[in-house]
Write a structure and sequence with these properties.
alpha+beta, Alpha-Beta Plaits, two-stranded antiparallel ribbon, 3 helices, binds iron/sulfur cluster
Length: about 120
Amino acid sequence: MAWVITRACSDCVDVSCVLVCPVDCIYELVVPDPKYRNQLFIAPDECIDCALCAPECPWEAIYHDQSMPDVFLEDVAINRQVFHDHPKRDFTTVPLPQTALPTREEVEANLRKWGFERS
Ligand code: SF4
């Protein structure tokens, strides 16, 4: 079991999750690959399921693979596949500069953009 960074991270790429991860298993792909969105990824085989990252994400983009919203289900496989497609040297765990925190309206608008509606 692992936590997963969903497409709701795309182009937001806030690094709050990276800063709290105790095992440095949250990565940014640093080589161009049009197959993957501009977002962070969690290496599923390295995640220790501590759950520290999800509440830190200001974009609410991180979910557990066992309770993934339907609209983000594809991201479970994507977080795994990116580490099969690329060697570790193609990634970094060094945090990018911290971005400005989004407003509540921006978070909701971003989630709706990906089809996520709270029940
Ligand atoms: Fe890192 Fe814990 Fe989040 Fe897994 S659950 S990515 S170990 S902070």
